[in-house]
Amino acid sequence: MAFAEGLPQFRERRSGVIINVTSAVTVKPLHLLSVYTASKAAVNAFTESLALELEPFDVRAHLVLPGRAPETSFGESARSRILIPEPYAPLAQSVFVAWQQSTTVTRGLDVAEAVWRVANDPSCPMSLAAGADAVALTSPA
């Protein structure tokens, strides 16, 4: 169901859950991800405001914040499209090496479980990290 079409029905039924999946990078700045982070942060702000607007209708809006998921093709696809200006080449190289060496990641199952939880658990927090690396990024230091 399209978002705009579903919202009136949710309000009328006084039930429903909207789940937006963005990224854990929105809670901690990371190198080379400024535009990506900004686009995801915009969805976060929209969802947080929408949650307030829908609360009187008993409709919930949540965010799922996955971390880096190397088992998906997203990372490789994104890397092949990133144009790194020459002054940033050494930084990019070190960042990419660190990403490849990291064993703390998000699996597809982590995201599916987080989506299921926010859809089915009314006590779930508004934002939920999905994956070990996302949990580490979103946890207080």
UniProtKB/TrEMBL annotation:
GO terms for molecular function: oxidoreductase activity. Pfam families: adh_short (PF00106). It comes from the Bacteria. Coiled coil: none annotated. The keyword Oxidoreductase applies. Belongs to the short-chain dehydrogenases/reductases (SDR) family. PANTHER family: SHORT CHAIN DEHYDROGENASE (PTHR43976), SHORT-CHAIN DEHYDROGENASE_REDUCTASE FAMILY PROTEIN (PTHR43976:SF16). This is Uncharacterized protein.
